[in-house]
Design a protein that fits this description.
It is a single chain. The protein has 18 helices and 20 strands. The protein has 515 residues and is of the alpha/beta class. It has an eight-stranded parallel sheet. Helix 2 packs parallel to helix 3. The structure holds NADP nicotinamide-adenine-dinucleotide phosphate.
Amino acid sequence: MICLCLTASTIEEDRAAFLANKEFVQLVELRVDRLKQDQFGLIVPFLASLRDDYQMKAILTLRLAEDGGSWAYGEDERRQLIHRTVDQLCAGGAKAAGLAYVDLEAGKDFGELETFVRSCACTIIRSRHNFAGTPADLLEQVEALYSTTISDASSQDPVIAKFACTCRGVADLLLLVKTTAQLRKHGRRFVVLGMGAFGVPSRILSSKLGSLWTYTSSQQVPGQAAAPGHMDPALLAQGFRFAQIGAATKVFGIIGNPVMHSRSPAFHNSRFDAEQVDAVYVPFMVDDLASFFQLASELAIAGLSVTIPHKEAVRAYLTVEDELVREIGACNTLVSRSKSWYGTNTDAPGFFAPLALLLESRPGIKRKALVLGAGGAARAIVQSLLSHGFSVLLVNRGLERAQVLVNDFLKWYPQMIEARGLDDLDYHDADFLDYCHVIVQTTSLGMQGPDSNKDALEHYQYRGHEIVYDIVYVPEQTVFLRRARQAACTVINGRPMFDEQARLQSQLFFEALKT
Ligand code: NAP
């Protein structure tokens, strides 16, 4: 289930958030501790309306500040408000349908209140939050939540254990995933989720991991404060096809740091949706590849995209790497084959595909190119140009990095590539100008962010015959590309490259699904 947390200060705002998201959620949590005191009288009518008008289950939560909540009144007032709300919702014999859940934190004796809540057929969620990290004894701490002060429970697990902990790195996520495997084995009813960017996969894959639900916050409706790592319910339901995810769902993903901005999840999940396959593509924030690959085996991950900064380091985990990876020195695609990892690079063919179309219409063009930048992407692009017969002048802000790249490629393509520092360029030099038939911009300049107004080749005067290619794809037209277009050059932006490298990955992922 997707649970929508309602965290506004008024019931009206909470109702608006619910109405905007009701088609995506199966459960709501009303965070009463966030409400202003003058709203308390509206709680029961609102919960009754959710139940009666929308058949929506609800969790009642009044969290203390020490547990990460905002309850500003006394403990007695808190208990009285819970008692009164449950009592009023159950009035008139509507006990079984009164209120689905009440969240009561671990470590406190709720005594009579707990007995009363249970007598109203309401399930208790015994919750604990660890904002500092993921404890090494997570399993023991979750198991401890089941030992409750009340012994009259008729079901085996009288409470649902909820544990939310901050994943400080991918090692914490691994521990969390292993813990859920044990809890499933023990037949427990639980919600165990990771907070923060490293914990996001535990939220997307919650049903595969055995959690009864995952918490979300509306990011479209004002007044709703998202907890760390909460996703928008519409994105989770539609973008990640949450309802389809189950124990057998095959997991694919992208590893990077940062990774949350990536468009790859939208691309690959829509492909899975179009073909109706039981697979999901997840963004994994990764700080430590060794822990990640343990996680990959725990989740039986079938295929991966790789982005900054792991494209080079990931090679150490490959059993088989193809020639492209060897020449480029970087891998952006992994597929699991018979429990070992096969690595390739789709950036290079992805880059060349739109250029090849243009070259077809300009067969006489001199095969000489200027490449700006010497980062990870430049490596794939240089390999692609060299392997298609281009001579390359590689220009970078830092000459040393450019020289390292050039030396690596000279082994494979002698005399076809040379390096120069950006500040050393003579823009009128005939030798330099002779490279400028195809100009490829691979630096991060122009990309959305602080450098978005910068032109990577600001002192160059376009002559109009050049093919100018910027691999940045957000925004679609960089300052660099706009100036080239104004000078009547033929331009290509980074979008076709992104789509093509993703399409090639997608083919490999679908092949992996068949095995
Ligand atoms: P990277 O490895 O971090 O390399 C960044 C490059 O940009 C380096 O050459 C760096 O020069 C240069 N640079 C950064 N700031 C600069 C500045 N202020 N002035 C001059 N040069 C600067 O990054 P990457 O993986 O190569 O990615 C680069 C860009 O390509 C990103 O915008 C990325 O989104 C885009 N990309 C697009 C696709 C696609 O499918 N269209 C695929 C991959 C990447 P120094 O070496 O001197 O620091």
